[in-house]
Amino acid sequence: MPTRRASRNGFPGAENLFNEHFFELFEEGKYREAALVAADSPGGSLRTPETIARFKAVPADDGGRSVLLIYFQTLLERGKLNQVEAVELGMQLVAKNSVNIMEKWLKEDKLECSDQLGDLILPSSPNLALAVYIRAKTHAKVIQVLIQIGQVAKVAPYAQKVGLEVNATELVNMASQHSPQAALELANALQQAGVGAGGQLVPAHMAVDRSGIDHAAMFDTFMNRGMLQEATAYCLDNLKSDREEHGELQTKVLEANLMNAPQVADVILQQDIWHHYDKSKVAMLCERAGLFQHALENYSDLADVKRVMQNTHVINPEFLVNYFSNLSADDRLDCIKELIGSNPRANLQLCVQVAAKHTDDIGAERLMDVFSAVKQQDALFYYLQAIVGFSEDPEVHFKFIEAACSLGQFGEAERVTRESNVFDPEKVKTYLMRTRPKDPRPLINVCDRFGFVDEMIKFMVKNRQLKFVEGYVQRVNPLQCPATVGALLDLDQDEEFITNLIMSVKNTVPVEELVEEVEKRGKLKLLLSFLESRVGDGSTDVGVHSGIAKVYVESNVNPEHFLETNPYYDSRSVGRFCEKRDPYLAFVAFKRGNCDEEVLDVTNRHSLFKDQARYLVDRCSPELYEQVLDDENENRKMIVEQIISGALPDTREPNKISGAVKAFMTANMPDKLMEMLEKLVLQTSNSTFARNTNLQNLLILTAIKADSGRVMEYVRRLDNYDGEDVAQVAIGEELFEEAFTIHQKFEQHALAIGVLLEHMKDFGRAEEYSLKVDTSEVWSALGVKQLEAGQMSAGVNSLIKSKDPSSYMSVIEAARKGGSPGDYELVVKFLKFARNKVKDIRLVDTEILYAMCKCGRLTEVEEFISQPHGGDLEEAGDRCADDELYAAAKLLFSAVNNYGKLAPVLVRLGDFQGAVEAARKADRVRTWRAVCFACVDSKEFRLAQICGLHVVVEADELMDCIDYYQDRGHFQEIIDLLEQGLTLDRAHTSMFTELGVLLTKYRSRQMLEHCKMWWQRCNLPRLIRACEAAMLWSEMVYLHSQYNEFDNAALVMIDHSPDAWNPSGFTTVIAKAGNLEVMYKSIQFYIDEQPELLNDLLSVLAPKVESSRVISILRRAYADRFGDLGLLPLCKGYLLKVQESNVPDVNDALNDILIAEGSLDELETSIDSYDNFDQFVLARRLEKHELIQLRRISATLFRRNGKYEQAIEVSKRDKLYKDAVESVAASEDAELTEELATFFLENQLLECFTTILYTCFEFFRPDMALELSWRYNVMDHAMPFMIQTMKEIGQRLMGLEEESKEKREIDEDEKKKIDDEVNDDPSVLLFGLNPSQAADAGVPMLMAPPGGGAGMGGRTVPQIGWTQSAAAALQPTFAGLQQ
Predict the structure, then answer these.
(1) How far apart, in Å, do the first and last CA atoms of the chain sit?
(2) Is the pLDDT of residue 1224 over 80?
(3) Which of 317, 713, 782, 1241 has the greatest CB tally within 10 Å of its CB?
């Protein structure tokens, strides 16, 4: 107590008091109390190294606890440890391998940090040491540790933050001691931060595009360390802008790689990312390195290009072909000359490809000169073959044909002449006829396609090649037989030969053309046997029959009979042929084919008008009549006379008469038409036409149109016409009197009075006619017309005289048009008269009731109703209601007990209670609705609710009812109505749903309770939309969950977490969600708002989400605070759970965590069990780690991935020679094995030497083992290996001897078998080389022509079957090439 008071008040001399008390307690063994005294000593007078040494000297207690640690624990409870105490505590914890305990004290700032403390902790925990250095502000060591742990990206930001000037090159040198990859990453990070090679900060606008950074200095730094790969990678990363000022550095990078790593330079140049380097220098280096393609790309001098281009045996031909596109046309030509001149056979194909591609630029003529100058005979042929398919130059095609024929490639010449449309046919024909090739197919193709058949036939006849003529017609193109026959006739060839030629192709020859050609030459009789043969074969071909018709006419063999009976010949062709010989035969031929124009022409020119008239009547063609009866026809008069006088009277077919009549009518010849009709009807002895109704009708109608004065005469004289129809036509022409006469003649009284009333408007004459006729029909018609004319009284009287009550509707309609009570009085009078005389008593009584109501005679209505009647009271009531006669309507509806219609009427009369009672009796939805709305408008809500309960139970009426209430602002009333309606048996889903919608708008506090109670009976999507509009998030989540829309529920909870989120509910929802994006979004949500619950969430989502994406999200989370791992350490449990899937990202993440934690056993287990990750990257990362166990893991990974050199180097550095031997044994590389053996001998590791000989016996070269043993005098250690080697060699030699002997025996058996097969095969004698064919055999094809086949657009000509094909001719050549 005194010491505490002295310490608290700072009394002088208190130090002595504390010292005494401390020593007293220490001597008594009360170490904790002594520590408390030291902690409270004034100014820390007792917290000295001596006190620490005193506690350190005390042995541990029975529980094994160190007294010194008790001392430090007491000090930490009372405050903060000073520098000396912190260092000592660190030494104690390092010794116990418990450094991680200090992390908590560092966070609580209870340790005074110093560089000594950081140095002490660094080997055990670099991350903790980094925190100590930061607090101690030992900036240089902070940067060193950042580089050591691989966080190079944080070096530059840290230096800028603390204002430390750093030298980039020094930092990179420092990083290279740990790892080349770390040095590269650091260099890139420094450049990203804008730190130059000299330590200066580059301005931000320059750092972005690297324009102010000395990349050359950084490149030199890497190169000085021998790190070519990293230097190149650095430049590739930072010289992407391809600036001109970087040209020198680009050259240095390419030069270094071309001299040391040509493959890398090749890749860089292929990427085409730099363009400012020294092209000539790089091109020269590329040429030396064997990269001839890149040399060509960078050389600009034509001499250099030609020199490099000579290496065609190693340059990709496709590249060379494309490279020529970069040259000018003249340079291309020079290069082609150089290539083909230096080695024609080897470079011919390449030169042909280049020339074919660039023919348009260089010029086909110049290239043909080049290839023609080559000593190799077929060079020009190959070039032309490559371009002929797409060339449009006629000279190219001609030269190709010429070259093909000269080389015996008749198949190619035949193909081009058959397919090409480009060559000059005249020139090619002349050439072929001059050279006379053995194969006639090219000449035949040209002449056949371009119309030189006549010349070809003359050429073949002249050269005595009639067999070719016969073969051409029979096998190549039978369609050209007519032209061939014509040419042969012109050459006076034997007619028997010509006839036989025609007969050989009689079924394929075009007969019409053949007949035409022979007809031109006056040799038609030559075809008689051919045509009769075709007819005898049953041919119906028009050309055949036309030809034989001409032959018969020419020979005068009963031609008229043939022309009239044969149905197949061409009438026009034969008619024109006959006209010069006999016009009548021409008329017969034209008539048989209905050739109207030709018939008219021949009959007009030869005055055959009688025949023409009969033809017109027989054809009965309106178009033909129109042409003949045209005003401009000079022969019309004579033809009309022939028609009227002879043609028509002689015919007995009415349709022909009708056709002629129509033609005259169409020609507007009424006079001639009337003349014709009078002749047929009035002046003929033919009773058929005289009594013909149609002709009489036509005569009257014609008179109506042409001469109305004669109509009355015809009406009275004729009596067999259609009176009613004719009268209608007369009415149309306003001949009313004639029409009335016709009706009167045929006793059509109703139609007659109709003419008087409707057309003549003569009511007096009509009344006289009615009195004269005195028929009910006439009086009724008169009465109706009088009513229509407004003569109500006269009309009713006429109807009464007619004694026909059927016109009662006319009376009613007349009364309605008048609309006055007096009119309705007349209606009552007539209807009472007609009431007992009509069948439709219902309509009549209904009209009587309505008329009385309209007149206001309600008493008489009651009387009428009380008596038997047939009226429709409901209809009458409806009409009264429509006319707002509500009292009358009430009377009528009450009489029929129609409460459905009575209720609206009572509403109109203001009797709401009565309307409700009527609606209840009617019990119809429409009635309830009308009464309900009327009560709402009158604010009779109690009655409205009674009616509304019957409305809302109908789904179709619900929304109208709700809208009606809402539009008038009665929100509470409609809610009460729906709540009352939920208890009804007929309550449906829409009622529950719409009540919920109304609650969201007007009673939101009751919404959740409503959802929980009635959600099963609601339309959940509509409620969800309503809740969203009202921003009721908790209710919305609940509805989404009940609707199984767990994704949407989760999104709502995430977006509106203050109102909607709770831990248990969210976990339940997200576990049932199906959308992965929602799950990832929930992970980010927990990272942002609930990180402490993140592991629980991930455990739930683990089976569904993609672990790689989750890890990416966790790495990015708070990376600025916690480093590259982000929140991954927090989720270690999740990673262990999902690692079973062996996913690369999961393995990488967990390995990073285990490395950071220093959990070596767990790391080894992870690497061994789950190997699906980038093992090489991890090995490079661990190979220079401070822990030897991690370096050993690095060697293991190198060995697994085939990086045996790195694995051996790591093992050698750590003197793990057993691991080194295992690595070299796994590699099975003799060179590596020998290098390691030499290393063992140089370092006197003889046992290791013996071990490697034993382990690598299979691939250790015996000569090298013997040499090493002799050089280092260790023969004893190598002797077991040599003994075993000699044994193996002896066994192999014996095995080789046996194998060689067996192989020789097998070869001899095979040779004998082959000889026997050749000797026994007779086909060798049958298909040997034919000397004549060998003479015509062509050169081998260098390549397929690139446009051959149908690509030339020409008409395909059939192959000539009797000559050798091109493919067969080339078979021996290809066989020779294969041999």
Answers:
(1) 118
(2) yes
(3) 782
Its pTM surpasses 0.85 = no
Q: Report pLDDT for 1370.
A: 29
Distance (Å, whole) CA 1159 – CA 1164: 9
Residue 1115 pLDDT greater than 80, yes or no = yes
Q: Which amino acid is at 908?
A: R
Q: What is the average pLDDT across 512-522?
A: 82
H-type helices in 291-388, by residue range? 292-298, 302-309, 317-323, 329-342, 344-357, 359-362, 364-372, 379-387
Cα-Cα-Cα-Cα torsion 1261, 1267, 1273, 1274, nearest 10 degrees, comes to 10
What whole-number distance in Å separates Cα of residue 441 and Cα of residue 1128? 84
| pLDDT per residue as tens digits for the range 363-398 | 878 878 777 777 776 777 888 888 888 888 888 888
CA dist 118 and 90 (Å) reads: 9
pLDDT (0 to 100) of residue 1333: 36
Q: How confident is the model at residue 686 (pLDDT cuts 50, 70, 90)?
A: low
pLDDT in tens, 1230-1248: 888 888 888 888 888 888 8
581: nearest Cα among 554, 608, 604: 554
Kindly state the DSSP code that residue 392 receives in the 8-state scheme: -
Q: Are 1223 and 1256 in contact (CB under 8 A)?
A: no
Sequence-separated contacts (24+) of 678-686 with Cβ below 8 Å: 679/644, 679/649, 680/648, 680/649, 681/718, 684/649, 686/649
**Cα–Cα distance for residue pair 482/515, rounded to 1 Å:** 8
CB distance 870 to 845 below 8 Å: yes
User: Is residue 993 a contact partner of residue 1018, using CB atoms and an 8 Å limit?
Assistant: yes
**CA distances to 3, 677, 679, 684 from 645, in Å:** 166, 12, 9, 12
Distance CA 917, CA 927 (A): 11
Distances, alpha carbon 478 to alpha carbons 485, 514, 536, 735, in Å: 11, 11, 21, 75
DSSP state of 111: B
Burial (CB < 10 A; 0-12, 13-18, 19+), residue 781, is: buried
Q: What residue has token string 């016996």?
A: 1257
Q: What angle do CA 1089, 1091, 1097 make, to 5 degrees?
A: 105
Q: Is 377 helix (H, G, I), strand (E, B) or coil?
A: coil
What is the maximum span of the chain, computed from C-alpha positions, in angstroms? 176
Q: What does the block give as tokens for 552?
A: 């018969």
